[in-house]
Amino acid sequence: MTSFGREPGHALLGPYQEGTVLGLTSPERANALLLGIIEAASSGPHVEPLAAAVARLITDATATDVCFVHVLDDTDRSLTLAGATPPFDQYVGEIQLPIGSGVAGWVASHREPAVIVERKEEDPRYMPIPALRGTDYTSMASVPMESGPSGLVGVLNVHTVRRRQFTDRDLQLLGVIGRLVAGALHQARMHRKLEARERAHERFAEQVIGAQEAERRRLAGDIHDGISQRLVTLSYHLDAAGHSITAEPELAVEQLALARDLVNLTLDEARAAIGGLRPPVLDDLGLAGGLASLARSVPHFEIELELDDDRLPEHVEIALYRIAQECLQNITKHARATLARVRFRVHRGTAWLEVIDDGVGFDVQPAPSVDPHSPGYGMQSMAERAELVGGRLRVISRRGSGTTIIATVPLPATDADPEDA
């Protein structure tokens, strides 16, 4: 217990002072709190059970009425209520605060404690959340949960019904608790991210296999219904020409002309089938040439091009080409646009692809659409293509203001922008 800077036999952070909200009146309570935190941290690798246990321990140890444990989400841009004492535990996972919003968001942004003794509605940092019934509580204290190795993990809030004057010792105690649980919560967050990534990889593997099988069926159908049937018809024309070449030369010439037309048409279909597997233009002209060729194949709206000539690894060029192809197909089907811009550049070791249109736009949903007629339906496959090559996809759109799709892929050092050398 000496690691907390006190001598044996003294209470954690000093004796409880009259009029102080928090405090541990004996070494026994300090030991009980530490043992409770250790037990909670070792109970399992999940964020919510750990946060719930911490909330209960804090209210018991500090004589406060309610505790909220807000934990950074996986984007590190907002806080999610991960643990709370009853009756507010029913809102775990449902309350979110952007960093900088509300008292907890302010604490996360500034990395320093905040105290409101009374009239919290008059504090500019306070943001009422009806579900948490802030008006039922007079005083509150909020401290960041952080440690050296893990950095900021979340924020602890405690509230009291009666007016309380939080002291420096009170905040020190909450800070110590926050540091004690920060490491365990950080590990739980990493475990959650790993589980989510594994689930995403499993879903993606299933989708890739499904897409491969669907593509094989499509190609088999194209070959059977198109190329194979035309070759059969071609053989009939050649047979007819062979039988009539001496007796009816004019008929033979007619049959050979029809055969020639079928040969040309079959060649076109074969090239289209090959292009569906691997666009040959990428081999000859690279991504810039492929995007230019792709733009020429879209007659429904004007397309402006800003394309660098940089060559990329083959798998990156294919991924970005397919993303651009899906974007232009979505614009054609859904956007009712008159103008689109396709930009490709390599800057500071990253490949950038932007497809922008002036169409009707749509409301970006947090989850991918399951409606194949929705403009958001192809977003998941595009995002997964980008992630498969180590990149990411960003979608910016709202109704009436067009859509911007940005794909970024970090490149190996040998493929980085020469300006960075």
UniProtKB/TrEMBL annotation:
GO terms for molecular function: phosphorelay sensor kinase activity; protein dimerization activity. The keyword Kinase applies. GO terms for cellular component: membrane. It comes from the Bacteria. Pfam families: GAF_2, HATPase_c, HisKA_3. Keywords: Kinase, Transferase, Two-component regulatory system. Residues 46-195 form the GAF domain. Gene3D superfamilies: 1.20.5.1930, 3.30.450.40, Histidine kinase-like ATPase, C-terminal domain. Residues 315-413 form the Histidine kinase/HSP90-like ATPase domain. InterPro entries: GAF, GAF-like_dom_sf, HATPase_C_sf, HATPase_dom, Sensor_HK_TwoCompSys, Sig_transdc_His_kin_sub3_dim/P. This is Sensor histidine kinase.
